[in-house]
């Protein structure tokens, strides 16, 4: 829930004058007085920029020069680009660094292996407490090359799609980078998705290759990944090969498509020539949910995505050389792509890979890790913070967290209580908390406070301000930008940025319909937002039928499709309800076919199990209300507004029900709802 500003900002800090930059000694060059905690050498070539505000404005008004300067200095090119950008928001067109040739794996690994071979690239915090594996840049290069050669030896070529279904591990990172090295397009599927969900994504991508692991282990629980892959394979006859790495080494069912990855890598050459890729060739696709049942494969390309991930990782987290940086997201989500893999490795950082869960073996797991690994930046999700704060402060206080400088939050709104706990208890009041708003589609963080020790105020629970090059706009229903006031509007972005998604794989029309046609001239995020104190952005939640359960994005239609398939179900409708830990939870209304008894034994259990089996555990509705009918308008449209109220238990505040075809349906549903907890 979003709180109003007055509830959010403690009165003491509201009185502090906002000072976004102040005079300081010239840390950059030519007497520029720009307070960025992290130096930005490129500033020297931005004329007239003498303050942080100038710099942001420059990134908007001289967008091409801003990005081209960074692209030249931060990326290693095989051939320089000839045109910085060709973008047109009115038709959803985005191309960056045209004509340039590069290889993302060279940028993320080779160049650091050359200059700093023994620097630790990855620290794998395994599920088992205290077990770490350290991978240097030199070792990572060899892993990536051997894996890339294994793919090539088995026939994988530039442009082929490769599905990766693996737990968080160095080998998963190497698999992503190996694809990048040979120009294959990876599609990482979160290893918590079911066989059906995996099969759907493999088919949509037309992937002929899967890279997976025998088992995954999370919080001590074993997940039989290979067996799930086998089940998916039944639906995907076009898959030709399944590379298998080993985590626990327990037995699994073999198929004739299996290739042992360890064996293949040990036989493969230890160097693989990187393929020269065009800036706009596909780097990866990542499936995310929309308002229909079919997940969409969001496409990101090479140079723009990488540059944007690197820049945001560096400046949002104040990353400095030598820091130990930990983003605890799974590589199966965009946060894992941009802030576990591409951003930090592009910057030559040491990136922690967190395989476990926040409560294993106890709720001190994160903080135990921070102390042991001396972590400087910690990036996690509000759902975990909400869970941990319930266990009290002692699990935090017993560890030395003095290395922490920046605490990040991502995936959903961070409520005030969680923000304060994160700031005061975890950060001991000394770290900047950055609430980062972005999406799979934006490629990297778009709106976030600036971490700084500048005496600035960070407004609790709000992402506040745009990153360089990002120009958010609140747009009203009439398609006009709302200016001034504390008004709510559609959260849109009105200028292009290098990390923006290029298309939905195989469905460019859906891409345009979803993001560019609702508000012509703008990219529409699907979220609502408002400006507080007419200055800072605050996200008000999704405007479509997309849920955010523990930071996992899920379309209500995806759950409804599964419930509808049950033999006893006539119709299903799913809405979101607030949940104290998960942020939001699915609540399902299900009407039964004629003749099926509402008392049917274990129907609710069967429906929940179907969702678990066919989508994922996190998608399982918390509550299912079985009824004989759903409330509909006379034209047959399900009235979700009323279902949302019912789900929230607001049975006496259902609003106007006069347009319903049969108002008695609502009365019966309300009576049933009152009987539930
Ligand atoms: O609704 C917003 C919410 O998560 C959505 C994007 O989900 P996904 O593509 O899975 O990416 C998650 C990680 C970036 C957004 O449309 N969201 C993300 N971050 C925030 C947020 N809502 C509020 N505040 C945030 N900081």
What does this protein structure show overall?
The protein is built from 21 helices and 30 strands. The protein has 677 residues and is of the alpha/beta class. α16 links the parallel β19 and β20 (432-436). The protein binds adenosine-5'-monophosphate-propyl ester. The site of adenosine-5'-monophosphate-propyl ester has 21 residues, from α12, β20, β24 and β25.
Q: How is this fold's topology laid out?
A:
Layout: H1 5-8, H2 11-14, H3 52-61, H4 63-74, E1 83-88, E2 93-98, E3 101-102, H5 104-115, E4 120-125, E5 132-136, H6 137-153, E6 161-165, H7 170-182, E7 185-188, H8 195-205, E8 209-213, E9 216-218, E10 221-223, H9 225-234, E11 241-245, E12 258-260, H10 261-267, E13 277-278, E14 282-288, E15 296-301, H11 303-316, E16 324-327, H12 334-346, E17 350-354, H13 365-373, E18 377-380, H14 382-389, H15 394-397, E19 406-410, H16 416-426, E20 432-436, E21 472-475, E22 488-493, E23 503-504, H17 508-516, E24 523-532, E25 536-542, E26 546-549, E27 552-555, H18 556-565, E28 569-579, E29 583-592, H19 603-614, E30 623-627, H20 640-647, H21 663-675
Parallel strand pairs: 4-17, 6-7, 6-8, 7-14, 8-11, 11-12, 16-17, 16-18, 18-19, 19-20, 29-30
Antiparallel strand pairs: 1-2, 3-13, 4-5, 9-10, 14-15, 15-23, 21-22, 22-24, 24-25, 26-27, 28-29
Helix pairs in contact: 3-4, 5-6, 5-7, 5-12, 6-7, 6-10, 8-9, 11-12, 14-16
Adenosine-5'-monophosphate-propyl ester binds next to helix 12, strand 20, strand 24 and strand 25.
């Amino acid at each position: 829930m979003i709180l109003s500003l007055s509830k959010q900002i403690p009165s003491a800090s509201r009185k502090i004058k906002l000072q976004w930059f102040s005079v300081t000694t010239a840390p950059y060059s030519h007497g520029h007085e720009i307070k960025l905690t992290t130096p930005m050498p490129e500033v020297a070539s931005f004329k007239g920029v003498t303050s942080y505000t100038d710099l942001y404005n420059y990134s908007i008004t001289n967008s091409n020069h801003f990005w081209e300067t960074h692209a030249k200095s931060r990326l290693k090119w095989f051939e320089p680009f000839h045109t910085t950008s060709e973008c047109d928001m009115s038709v959803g067109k985005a191309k960056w660094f045209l004509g340039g040739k590069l290889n993302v794996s060279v940028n993320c690994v080779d160049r650091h292996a050359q200059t700093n071979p023994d620097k630790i690239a990855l620290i794998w915090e395994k599920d088992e407490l205290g077990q770490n594996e350290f991978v240097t840049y030199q070792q990572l290069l060899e892993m990536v090359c051997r894996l890339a050669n294994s793919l090539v030896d088995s026939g994988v070529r530039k442009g082929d799609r490769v599905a990766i279904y693996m737990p968080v591990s160095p080998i998963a990172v190497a698999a992503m980078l190996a694809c990048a090295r040979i120009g294959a397009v990876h599609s990482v599927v979160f290893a918590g998705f079911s066989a059906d969900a995996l099969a759907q994504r493999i088919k949509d991508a037309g992937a002929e290759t899967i890279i997976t692991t025998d088992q995954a282990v999370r919080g001590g629980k074993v997940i039989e990944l290979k067996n799930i892959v086998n089940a998916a394979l039944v639906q995907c006859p076009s898959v030709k090969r399944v590379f298998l790495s080993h985590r626990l080494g327990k037995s699994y069912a073999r198929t004739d498509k299996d290739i042992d990855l360890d064996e293949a890598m040990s036989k493969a050459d230890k160097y693989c020539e990187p393929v020269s890729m065009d800036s706009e060739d596909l780097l990866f696709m990542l499936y995310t949910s929309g308002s229909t049942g079919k997940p969409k494969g969001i496409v990101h390309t090479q140079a723009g995505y990488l540059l944007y991930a690197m820049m945001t990782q560096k400046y949002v987290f104040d990353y400095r050389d030598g820091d130990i940086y930990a983003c605890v997201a799974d590589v199966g989500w965009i946060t894992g792509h941009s802030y576990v893999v591409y951003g930090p490795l592009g910057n030559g950082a040491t990136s922690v890979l967190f395989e476990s869960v926040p409560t294993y073996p106890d709720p001190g797991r994160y903080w135990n890790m921070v102390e042991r690994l001396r972590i400087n930046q910690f990036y996690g999700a509000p759902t975990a913070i909400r869970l941990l704060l319930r266990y009290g402060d002692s699990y935090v206080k017993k560890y030395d967290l003095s290395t922490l400088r920046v605490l990040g939050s991502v995936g959903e709104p961070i409520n005030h209580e969680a923000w304060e706990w994160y700031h005061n208890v975890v950060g001991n009041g000394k770290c900047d908390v950055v609430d980062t708003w972005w999406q799979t589609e934006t490629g990297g963080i778009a709106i976030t406070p600036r971490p700084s020790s500048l005496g600035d105020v960070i407004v609790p629970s709000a992402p506040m301000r745009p990153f360089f090059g990002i120009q958010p706009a609140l747009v009203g229903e009439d398609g006009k930008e709302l200016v001034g006031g504390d008004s709510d509007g559609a959260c849109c972005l009105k200028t292009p940025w290098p990390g923006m998604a290029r298309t939905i794989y195989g469905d460019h029309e859906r891409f345009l319909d979803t993001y560019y046609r609702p508000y012509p001239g703008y990219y529409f995020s699907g979220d609502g937002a408002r400006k507080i104190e007419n200055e800072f952005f605050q996200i008000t939640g999704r405007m479509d039928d997309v849920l955010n359960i523990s930071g996992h994005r899920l379309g209500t239609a995806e759950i409804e499709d599964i419930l509808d398939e049950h033999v006893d179900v006539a119709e299903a409708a799913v809405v979101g309800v607030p949940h104290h830990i998960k942020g939001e939870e699915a609540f399902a209304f299900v009407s039964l076919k004629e003749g099926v008894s509402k008392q049917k034994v274990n129907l609710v259990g069967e429906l929940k199990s179907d969702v678990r089996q066919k989508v994922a555990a996190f998608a399982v509705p918390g509550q299912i209300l079985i009824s004989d009918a759903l409330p509909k308008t006379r034209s047959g449209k399900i009235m979700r507004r009323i279902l949302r109220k019912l789900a929230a238990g607001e049975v006496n505040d259902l609003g106007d029900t006069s347009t319903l075809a049969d108002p008695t349906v609502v009365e019966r549903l309300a009576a049933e709802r009152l009987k539930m907890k």
